[in-house]
Amino acid sequence: MKKRNFWMMLLLTIITCGIYGIYWWYCFVEDMNALCEGRSNEKPSPNYIIVILLSFVTCGIYSLIWMYKQGNRMADAAETYGIRTNFNGTTLLLWFVVGQLLCGFGPLIGQYMWIDLFNQMADAYGVKY
Asked: FRET label pair with 59: which of 16, 97, 123, 126, CA 20 to 30 Å apart?
């Protein structure tokens, strides 16, 4: 497990036409499951490849539900690490859905906030770069 860099992920995802982004989110979800293990009432997130496939089959609806659940899951786990945050599933979902009106930058802001909370939790967990 390691801390994540949003800007590097964004750059490499653009350079590789999205392939690196899939790998990055796969690793992120695995690490998120480790950080939240035993600290949240919800079960672990499914493998990110499954999330992509189910999102494709449901025309993107599953990905929105998944993001909402994971945002709430991380907010709950953050409290056990002593991290106070205003971030939760609703915040993430609003940035992804309503944030599309900000020239498409809303989802990027939501992802940045999500990764920032992850990095704060990783610091509390004792992870270094």
From this structure: 16
